[in-house]
UniProtKB/TrEMBL annotation:
It is found in: Cytoplasm. InterPro entries: Class_I_gatase-like, PRibForGlyAmidine_synth_PurQ. The gene is purQ. Signal peptide: none annotated. Its EC number is 6.3.5.3, 3.5.1.2. Keywords: ATP-binding, Cytoplasm, Glutamine amidotransferase, Hydrolase, Ligase, Nucleotide-binding, Purine biosynthesis. Part of the phosphoribosylformylglycinamidine synthase complex involved in the purines biosynthetic pathway. Catalyzes the ATP-dependent conversion of formylglycinamide ribonucleotide (FGAR) and glutamine to yield formylglycinamidine ribonucleotide (FGAM) and glutamate. The FGAM synthase complex is composed of three subunits. PurQ produces an ammonia molecule by converting glutamine to glutamate. PurL transfers the ammonia molecule to FGAR to form FGAM in an ATP-dependent manner. Pfam families: GATase_5. It catalyses: L-glutamine + H2O = L-glutamate + NH4(+); N(2)-formyl-N(1)-(5-phospho-beta-D-ribosyl)glycinamide + L-glutamine + ATP + H2O = 2-formamido-N(1)-(5-O-phospho-beta-D-ribosyl)acetamidine + L-glutamate + ADP + phosphate + H(+). The active site is at 86 (nucleophile), 194, 196. Part of the FGAM synthase complex composed of 1 PurL, 1 PurQ and 2 PurS subunits. This is Phosphoribosylformylglycinamidine synthase subunit PurQ. It comes from the Bacteria.
Length: 227
């Protein structure tokens, strides 16, 4: 499986994402500068964390109208997997590919620590390797991680089983304790916690690795023909 890690001016978790996929998952990955992307040759797109365009206007707002975005939309429309982490999640929200918006953290402070999460949904191409209801621990690092949506959207997210992860101890004020959601079609996951920072014991925790393994498992199920 071949992944593109999209790099924007101000991305700072791109190397971690690349490491997670190429060194730990041991699949192909390339760093792709947002102006030079040709996403046709990739099977998965990873939108990494960071401060794209210095979080100018709102986090992810400028990146969401940058050059690569038309191709990301085509990639999503083709049903291929797109994972947005932290700033990547913010970009997907600003694109309108995921419902809701991101506000500043409830306490107006940048939060950088491990958080316990509940895996709410395992029937997705991103979470199939977890147990439903399982508690995992992942690092968070954000200033604008307070996920907001109105009651009607929250209801729809619940009904469609689009809530993938919730916080056990809501650190930022997110509606419904939401830490990560998928799109309706199920091929886009946006999440604030950083799975790429928790993929091996050397990093203190490997709870994030199963997200990448789930994507790979799904891709193999669809593409690898057993003779
Ligand atoms: N780690 C990150 O991706 C930071 C996200 C974002 N720019 C924020 O602080 O909210």
């Amino acid at each position: 499986m071949k992944f593109a890690v999209i790099v924007f001016p101000g991305s700072n978790c791109d190397e971690d994402m690349y490491h997670a996929v190429s060194e730990v998952l041991q699949e192909e990955a390339e760093m792709v500068w947002f102006e030079e992307a040709d996403l046709d040759k990739y099977d998965g797109v990873l939108l990494p964390g960071g401060f794209s365009y210095g979080d100018y206007l709102r986090s992810g707002a400028v990146a969401s109208v940058s050059k690569v975005i038309a191709q990301v939309r085509e990639f999503i429309a083709a049903g291929k997997p797109v994972l947005g982490v932290c700033n990547g999640f913010q970009v997907l929200l600003e694109m309108g590919e995921l419902p809701g918006a991101m506000l500043k953290n409830r306490d107006l402070k940048f939060i950088c620590r491990e958080e316990s999460l509940t895996v709410e949904q395992t029937d997705t191409m991103f979470t199939s390797r977890y147990e439903e209801g399982e508690t995992i621990s992942l690092p968070v690092a954000h200033g604008e991680g307070n996920y907001y949506c109105d009651e009607a959207v929250l209801e729809k997210l619940r009904e469609n089983r689009q809530i993938a992860f919730t916080y056990k101890n809501n650190p930022n004020g997110s509606t419904g304790n939401i830490a990560g959601i998928t799109n309706e079609a199920g091929n886009v996951l946006g999440m604030m916690p950083h799975p790429e920072r928790a993929v091996e014991e050397l990093l203190g925790n490997d709870d994030g690795l199963r997200i990448f393994e789930s994507i790979l498992t799904h891709w193999r199920d669809v593409h690898v023909v057993n003779n």
